[in-house]
Amino acid sequence: MCGITGWVSTTTPVARAQFEDMTDRLRHRGPDGRGTLYFRDDRIALGHRRLAIQDLSPAGAQPMRWRPSPSQPGLALTFNGEIYNHPELRLELESHGAVYTTNCDTETILHAYWRWGPEAVRRLRGIFAFAIWDERSGELFAARDHLGVKPFHMAQIGDGLAIASQVSAFFALGAFRRTVRAGGFVDALRHGVSTGGQTIFEGVTSLAPGHSLTWRDGETQVSRYWSLPDAPDIGSAEHAAREVSELIADSIDSQMLGDVPVHSLLSGGIDSSLMTALAMRREQRFGRAYTLRFDDPDFDEERYAEEAAKSIGCEREVRTFPARDTNALLDTAIAGFDEPYGIDSCLPMVAIAQFMAEDGVKVALSGDGGDELFGGYRHYDDLSAHYARRGRATAQDPAASIRGRLFDQLTGGFSPFPTYTSHNGWFADGALRILAGPRIKDTLGDPFARERTVFPLDRPPVEAARRADLASYLPDEILPKIDRATMAFGIEARVPLLDHRLVELAFRIEPELHYRAKERKALLKSVAAHYLPGSLLTGRKKGFSLPITSLFFPTAQDRKQAIAQIAAGPLVEHGWLAAKGIARAVSRSEYSAGALFQLMLIDRWYRHWIAGNPA
User: Which of 4, 6, 14, 461 could form a disulfide with 163 if both were Cys (CB 3.0 to 4.6 A apart)?
Assistant: First the structure.
């Protein structure tokens, strides 16, 4: 992986010193090299920080420029990610006359765009965020991968458009203002993260997954190039299992690509265990499996990872979560994420990434995506139970109102929407109103806005929830966590289960084959049974979460001190929170330790990035 930056404007040149600084603020994403290119009297600029994975020679450096001849206009590219079908595309492009000077996938994107134009993005299989400056047409073309694994942020500054892998890169531009958006702050309180392609900063957005962008003469057009299949068309369990098995294996094989060893994150769950088992077939490319253990037995699942490693026969590194160093870990997470991430699972992810970096790891496979694709989340149980008891969902949305519940009782219909939203966030709307300071008191808005836009009420509840989770929970919460945590240490995280072909296949399969009679991941288990012992095919996974109470608030006094620190801090001083509402809002949360931890993370983020206003 890498860090990318860019600037395009019709009239305003970027200050080179600022753009160089902007690029170097992503040094952690690309410690192996840097580069910048300028065009049109500095009104166009591309920057890159390199993490060398394919073609480790200087020939693979970026931004990469290609021209049919030295005297002709050509293309320039800055690219973050991996193109897993690069070998196949290279053969096809060479058959059409392309002449390669490197062995890296960066050059494949250039040749593909030269031959097919914007349609080239539809041929790519991988994880990517890139921008191409086309000297022929004076256009900037950019794209983000199908599921949003790699980040792509944009900031409109005057008549210029700045792009970067992380928001903090924009802070180098003198014209950029770190203005916190009220709606973004509400999102951070409600969900712990920014949502829906927005960020917490005014004027900064994200290119949506599966979308591309074209800029020309100050005009920007965004279009979708990929979407999920509309309806399932595979009803045979045998056929579905065969297709899933073949495609998972093919995805993992393709993601062993590179000139450095590939390792894995092994938690002992079905997803990571199956992924590691299949990766082990390429022993000459596979390194080690990494497991994080906890001293608290209620949170530790190391025994399952040990069982998986023994059954697979892989070498394993086991590290213990550094409970005594949580403050340092918090500081590392806040600096690396550069937007609020008020969810406790970020700390174990940062910890394991730090351990891997100490061992020189550059590439690691992660099992993320399996729950969305194959029906693995616990909240699907509640939706399934309601569905079985009440029948099909209605197209109407009674939400949580008294009128809605009355409609439900009188008609026998069932809207799954309130059930789906009930598992999201530590703070209910009433608690947020107590917590809100004057800056956001009147901007709390619809508490279910994110879910409402992505939850299709005309589908069976579990199917609707899978689609909603893939469209919101995955790109808003899961993928930013693994990207920021690993890239903070210059590690490329690959997610084989999110190969877009596998995602398409999973949603072409009848939902009942994935989830039936409260059995989550039924189909995936049948595939995994060929590689893993039956004891690992259970639903006993806890998730990558922390023993928050014992680590941060072991006593009532610790809890009071944390609340007092937030109440006396800049969030209250600047009008974002109401001091007297903090303790009340936390106490009203179903899990008060989690709610307080979320506020503590947001408070520390605000002190670091806003109140402290670092250069």
Answer: 6
CA distances from 244 to 4, 310, 466 (A): 34, 25, 17
Q: Would you call 412 exposed, middle or buried from its count of C-beta atoms within 10 A (0-12, 13-18, 19+)?
A: exposed
User: How far, CA to CA in Å, does 512 sit from each of 385, 461, 590?
Assistant: 14, 11, 32
The residue behind tokens 């979460």 is: 545
pLDDT tens digits for range 566-575: 999 999 999 9
Whole-number pLDDT of residue 387: 55
Beta-carbon contacts of 72 under 8 Å, excluding residues fewer than 6 positions away, are none
Estimate to the nearest angstrom the gap between the alpha carbon of 490 and the chain centroid: 16
Query: Residue 115 pairs with which residues in a beta bridge?
Result: none
For residue 262, the surrounding DSSP H or E stretch is strand 262-265
Measured CA to CA, the distance from residue 50 to residue 519 in angstroms comes to 44
CA distances from 547 to 273, 348, 591 (A): 24, 11, 12
Chain segment 319-328, per-residue pLDDT in tens: 999 998 898 9
Do the beta carbons of residue 193 and residue 341 sit within 8 Å?
A: yes
**pLDDT per position as a tens digit, 79-95:** 999 999 999 999 999 99
AA letter at 611: A
